[in-house]
Predict the 3D structure of the following.
Amino acid sequence: MIILDKSFKELFKDFCTTNNIENMQVAIQYFTVFGGLDIKIDTTKPILELIEKHILNNYNYLRSEVNQITGGYHVEHAILSGIALGDRKTTNAFKRAHVSFEEGMKCVDSLYEKAIIDIDSSEHFLLGKRGDSKAVKKLIFINPFLRFWFAFVSPIYKGIKDGNYEEFKTKFQGRESDFSDFIFEELALSFVKNTFVEDKIKQHGQYWNEKIQIPIVAKTNSDKTIIGFSKYTDNKMKKSELNKFLEDCKKEDISADIIVIFTKNGYSTELKALKSETLKLFNVKSLKALVQ
């Protein structure tokens, strides 16, 4: 029932095809929870209703399946919750789990071997930067459902096991919007990798250090550098947000041939006027190319 043998992009494509989803905003919202869970869902129904029906009411069965995948070890589950609820950096996940770095990394190696998480390093070389030993690694769930499980179900399992879903609903409704940020970010990076038609992408990833995070970094076959970011909120992207991004990059001596931006609900008129060959603006509908 939980799929572990497919990539993030494959899971998204299968999810959209299986559930006949045309609206990409709906696809992202429901994929954030049900992606990688081998079931067909009715996306015309409220997401909380579907979570209760397919996940919470089946808690015992799903918990057994999750434990078979993970091994059921308490420390590893604590780390997985730390990853799901935090910024995905190793050090912060270990702090949330109250484990040492050495113990945490042993668990990470085990979880990686089980294909539950991937380990991501900052792509310094794509921007001509030296490797920074202070730039810790990030841990990424390959399966969105497992990320959802360890963010919202596993930490409060007692109430859910007893059939009390109120705490879950409160926590989920409070974080649903920002919880989709990561999924949108990953899909945007996948879009650049797979559908950037002007010039084929030969390398891609993310860049971060102690001062800046750039969610999208890529190098084309013609050696052009692409950097960009995404924003998954109901507000339109403004020119000031682009300016801040460019200023932060300038402070770190980072430049690029092409800037790409992805947003949920479009752009201000002022920002749209800047669209060019060196500034490419995409929205949620653009991601439909990933499932075609």
